[in-house]
Inverse folding.
């Protein structure tokens, strides 16, 4: 088990190098002078620009800038953004925001998705199944942008059920509305996947065999159907969690949640290669971690999977 | 200090007894103001030239002089007098006695001289460094650095033109005579920092010590709202009525607007996308300012195809300014290069700014037509950039019969390309003055190598008239000279005036923002109902 | 991950009987479903609109009078006017082309790329699988939207082909994984082994036996995702990296209109068209999958 985890971690290192180098190169190649965007409404004098350039190593060659950034990341010495924000401070503030949003959104998505998916899978072609399919179609057809703006306007501004934006009301109040919208949009795909998977498993030979052996319905459900039907869904989990980080850019912007997504978007706009790479590294690490967990979960769901 | 402390205790206990308001402290006179920007990382007026930072600094720092919101005349705040010599080259500034910083230290001429010297050092990389380029000795602190090179360190740490005379008096010697210098002193970016901050500015990024009417009410950490409380040591004029102010940062302007509608804010600026609806969304809760500033279409001076002034005039006359101003909202068509609220503004200064398709076509034909498509650049970072670009593009295409294409880029990339003279085609630009003088429109944008010479325009005749105006001590005569400069610029037309915008803001029932036709709308100086 | 999936797939072999439909059988099965016929007709309508917009409107979408900005419907202008004062019906009709092209090309491209790579990775474990899977890992671990924003900010001219290209780049790994897992479950089935043993060349095995039996989940995923592509185009406009004028597209109409909530007709119409097209695609995808997947017909 431990050797398996170690092997995975070692395999991740070259990928990490390629990812960070690639991201840094992309940002480096972006046109536009970062310090100019920073200048605000008025022009800033050449002497000031030159001093800032030197401070952030902007005149060094690409590879030197990359190595300096990586050194900072690895030594935990993050420094400040071009605008003067302490990056370690920002991470301390922003990571919890993104985590809370992602977790809550996933709770909604998985609760709805699994419940509806399992129910519809067992009662296939019943009226609940049909209306569920229709509902998921409608949800999948709504562009996310509309859903966020509409929800904010209707439930926040008009009905005042939820805070309009920001995190001042704390957890979970401030996060409920955005997570509900993410959860509802994401649940459609999940419910459909779950439903299909249940249908396939219920009709599988090993389930029939189990029934034929005279096992009780409960036992068949919990020991045979659910674990097997969950397998493709668990793969989906890994992909989905990794995607949430990127998707949060729009949600965080509309709901004014000071999370990592907004930080990333700002950093890209300002061409702050160091920050973008730092955040990409975080995303990469969480991706590796989540997938490792997913694979370990596989082992629990399916005893035949052995990690050695 | 003892008195001040006792007073706030009394007020606090009053608030506690009535218990009516949910706000903290003496909540009845507290306001929450939205700032549609990323949270500030520091408060330091000398290193701040964007409006969010200046807006916050304005509550905590006081300028030397300011514009009286009622009369529009210059009003002394920290200064007792600002007097030029005969040539307007050396200026003597006397401070009002008895002012202190919020740490109790008296405010002296030394604080100004040292704070300004610190900012004038290029190596400090503070944003208001450029202001001091007018003062003698600036080059010694900011040696010329070739593009891409690391700046050379210099041992010079002080401007030779700045001299402390006594505790409350200092003199400023300019490189050349400049009659408007007194007006420029109202820029808040010249506020003084106390000695302890000057010694280690980084340590005080989040612990500003000002000399203005408000001070930090609580520790201000990254990501927090900025909470300010009244500072009773402020002795200057124009004391705001509010006793507590909270600045809340909401980067998405539409979201800030929604927050206001949900009743969570006392004051918010109306974003450009809402100018058509705010009166219905918040009836009786809105104010608008007089139109101020100026917006332009910028013609690239480096592109030969646009060289002929007739082409520029044709473009100008093909634009239906009325319809365009309506599209932008809260705007009026502009036919001058300076803002309408300036002394010396002439509403019909421009001879080629009327919408006249026939004349425009004729001018274009006289100039021999235009080859290739007209490219219109717009900033993707602004909400209305694309919409405005399309509107101008449609008018040029339909009225002049030229081909039009569009390029959306980030604002900084457009500026950078323009600075390198590589930008293809037209772009939008705008300017708001730092001090109320038409000179602050003409010098930055039209003087050769001006700070904000968007078009890279240069005309020695205009430079000469501007220099004459700068050296003219009589304000009336100076304005006449500046108007001549405006006429030259309008004939050459490096910038095509488009519209002047006023700003709309929403306010809660609790407050009535101060509205001045001279200095606009302010929530800081709101009165309470 | 490969060892895990291998075990999972080994068990998945027991599922299904490997019966496949011929194309004619498939078509007949589909045509029996009224919802399939209806949605196909709707889509044909959209395709016609994309290909020959002049059939649907005689108005010039680029003739604009700023004075009519955001006016409601009037005679000859059933959808009213847009922000620029152009006829909105004509704009929505002309907007079909980029939106249809982006969604179809990107989805089809992702299907082909993901299908091919998934097929190869699943059928040839070892070096080929390693190269493909590790590349996918790299792309996976960078948030897709970040790549989109950075690349679209860098290119000098954002055309639909560049947007399609970037979507392809970040879109294929997800489908590839799904395909690869399905291929694992198919590759050891009797009919594949039988074909192998009589010396059928690998390409033919992949094409004739493995692909048809393993494509259903990927196809379902692709059709479900088509709507998202048009939505993504709108999101790009919101983030400032969408198609630029004079291109007319539903996504950018929608992205611009999202800021002008007070004139609902500006976003209702493109939203209606986007949603109708999306739902049609998904119903068709559902029908195809149901028809292809014998397990669901039992």
């Amino acid at each position: 088990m431990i050797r398996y985890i170690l092997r995975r971690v070692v395999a991740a290192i070259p990928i990490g190098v390629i990812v960070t180098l690639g991201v840094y190169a992309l940002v480096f190649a972006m046109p536009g002078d970062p310090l100019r965007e920073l200048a605000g409404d008025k022009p800033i004098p050449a002497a000031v620009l030159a001093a800032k350039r030197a401070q952030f190593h902007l005149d060094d060659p690409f590879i030197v800038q990359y190595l300096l950034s990586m050194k900072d990341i690895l030594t935990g010495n993050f420094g400040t953004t071009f605008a003067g924000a302490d990056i370690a401070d920002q991470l301390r503030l922003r990571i919890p925001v993104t985590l809370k949003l992602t977790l809550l959104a996933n709770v909604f998505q998985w609760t709805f998705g699994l419940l509806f998916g399992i129910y519809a899978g067992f009662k296939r072609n019943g009226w609940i199944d049909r209306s569920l399919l229709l509902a998921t179609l409608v949800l999948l057809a709504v562009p996310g942008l509309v859903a966020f703006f509409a929800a904010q306007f209707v439930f926040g501004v008009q009905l005042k059920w939820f805070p309009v934006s920001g995190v001042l009301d704390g957890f979970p109040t401030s996060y409920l509305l955005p997570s509900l919208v993410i959860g509802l949009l994401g649940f459609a795909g999940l419910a459909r996947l779950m439903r299909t998977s249940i249908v396939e498993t219920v009709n599988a030979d090993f389930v029939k065999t189990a029934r034929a052996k005279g096992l009780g319905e409960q036992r068949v459900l919990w020991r045979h159907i659910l674990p097997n039907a969950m397998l493709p869904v668990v793969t989906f989990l890994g992909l989905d969690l990794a995607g949430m980080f990127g998707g949060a850019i729009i949600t965080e912007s509309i709901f004014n949640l000071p999370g990592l997504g907004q930080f990333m978007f700002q950093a890209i706009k300002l061409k702050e290669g160091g920050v973008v790479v730092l955040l990409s590294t975080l995303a990469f690490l969480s991706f590796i971690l989540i997938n490792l967990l997913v694979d370990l979960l596989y082992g629990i769901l399916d005893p035949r999977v052995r990690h050695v | 200090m003892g008195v001040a402390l006792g007073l706030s205790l009394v007020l606090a206990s009053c608030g506690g007894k009535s218990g009516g308001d949910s706000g903290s402290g003496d909540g009845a006179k507290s306001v929450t103001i939205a700032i549609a920007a990323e949270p500030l990382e520091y408060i330091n007026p000398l290193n701040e030239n964007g409006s969010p930072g200046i807006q916050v600094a304005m509550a905590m720092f006081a300028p030397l002089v300011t514009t009286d919101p009622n009369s529009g005349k210059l009003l002394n705040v920290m200064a007792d007098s600002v007097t030029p010599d005969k040539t307007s080259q050396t200026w003597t500034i006397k401070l009002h006695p008895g002012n202190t910083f919020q740490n109790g230290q008296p405010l002296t001429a030394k604080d100004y001289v040292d704070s300004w010297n610190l900012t004038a050092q290029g190596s400090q990389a503070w944003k208001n460094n450029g202001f001091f380029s007018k003062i003698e000795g600036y080059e010694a602190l900011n040696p010329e650095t070739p593009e891409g090179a690391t700046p050379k360190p210099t041992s010079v740490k002080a401007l030779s033109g700045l001299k402390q005379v006594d505790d409350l008096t200092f003199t400023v010697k300019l490189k050349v005579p400049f009659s408007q210098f007194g007006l420029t002193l109202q820029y808040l970016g010249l506020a003084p920092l106390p000695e302890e901050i000057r010694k280690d500015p980084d340590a005080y990024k989040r612990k500003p010590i000002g000399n203005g009417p408000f001070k930090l009410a609580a520790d201000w950490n990254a990501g927090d709202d900025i909470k300010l409380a009244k500072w009773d040591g402020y002795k200057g004029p124009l004391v705001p009525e509010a006793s507590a102010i909270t600045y809340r940062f909401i980067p998405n302007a539409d979201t800030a607007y929604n927050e206001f509608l949900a009743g969570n804010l006392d004051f918010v600026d109306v974003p450009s996308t809402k100018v058509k609806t705010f009166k219905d969304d918040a009836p009786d809760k809105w104010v608008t300012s007089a139109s101020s500033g100026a917006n332009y279409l910028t013609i690239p001076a480096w592109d030969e195809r646009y060289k002929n002034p007739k082409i520029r005039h044709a473009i100008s006359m093909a634009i239906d300014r009325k319809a365009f101003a309506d599209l932008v909202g809260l705007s009026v068509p502009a036919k001058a290069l300076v803002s309408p609220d300036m002394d010396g503004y002439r509403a019909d200064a421009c001879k080629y700014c009327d919408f006249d398709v026939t004349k425009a076509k004729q001018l274009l034909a006289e100039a021999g037509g235009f080859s290739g498509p007209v490219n219109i650049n717009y900033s993707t970072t602004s909400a209305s950039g694309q919409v405005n670009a399309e509107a101008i593009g449609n008018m040029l295409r339909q009225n002049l019969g030229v081909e039009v294409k569009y390029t959306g880029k980030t604002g900084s990339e457009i500026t950078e390309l323009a600075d390198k003279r590589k930008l293809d085609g037209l772009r939008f630009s705008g300017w708001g003055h730092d001090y109320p003088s038409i000179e602050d429109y003409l010098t930055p944008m039209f003087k050769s190598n001006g700070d904000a010479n968007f078009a890279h325009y240069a005309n020695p005749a205009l430079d000469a008239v501007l220099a004459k105006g700068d050296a003219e001590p009589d304000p009336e005569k100076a304005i006449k000279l500046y108007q001549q400069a405006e006429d030259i610029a309008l004939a050459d037309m490096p910038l095509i005036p488009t519209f002047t915008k006023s700003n709309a803001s929403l306010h809660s029932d609790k407050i009535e923002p101060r509205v001045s036709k001279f200095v606009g709308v302010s929530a800081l100086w709101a009165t309470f109902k | 991950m490969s060892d895990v999936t291998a075990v999972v797939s080994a068990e998945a072999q027991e599922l299904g009987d490997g019966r496949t439909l011929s194309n004619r059988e498939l078509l007949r099965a589909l045509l029996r479903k009224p919802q399939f016929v209806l949605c196909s007709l709707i889509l044909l309508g959209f395709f016609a609109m994309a290909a020959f917009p002049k059939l649907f409107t005689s108005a010039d979408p680029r003739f604009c009078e700023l004075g009519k900005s955001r006016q409601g419907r009037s005679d000859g202008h059933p959808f009213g006017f847009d922000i620029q004062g152009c006829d909105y019906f004509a704009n929505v009709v002309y907007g079909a082309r980029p939106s249809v092209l982006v969604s179809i090309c990107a989805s089809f491209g992702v299907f082909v790329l993901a299908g091919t790579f998934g097929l190869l990775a699943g059928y040839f474990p070892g070096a080929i699988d390693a190269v493909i899977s590790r590349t996918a890992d790299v792309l996976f671990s960078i948030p897709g939207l970040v790549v989109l924003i950075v690349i679209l900010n860098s290119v000098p001219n954002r055309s639909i082909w560049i947007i399609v290209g970037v979507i392809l780049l970040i879109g294929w790994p997800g489908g590839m994984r799904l395909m690869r897992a399905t291929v694992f479950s198919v590759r050891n089935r009797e009919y594949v082994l039988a074909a192998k043993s009589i010396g059928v060349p690998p390409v033919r095995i992949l094409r004739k036996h493995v692909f048809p039996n393993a494509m259903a989940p990927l196809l379902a995923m692709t059709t479900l995702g088509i709507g998202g592509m048009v939505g993504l185009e709108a999101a790009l406009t919101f983030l400032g990296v969408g198609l630029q004028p004079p291109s007319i597209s539903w996504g950018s109409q929608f992205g611009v209109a999202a800021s002008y909530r007070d004139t609902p007709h500006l976003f209702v119409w493109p939203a209606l068209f986007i949603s109708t097209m999306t739902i049609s695609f998904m119903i068709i995808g559902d029908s195809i999958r149901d028809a292809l997947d014998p397990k669901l017909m039992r």
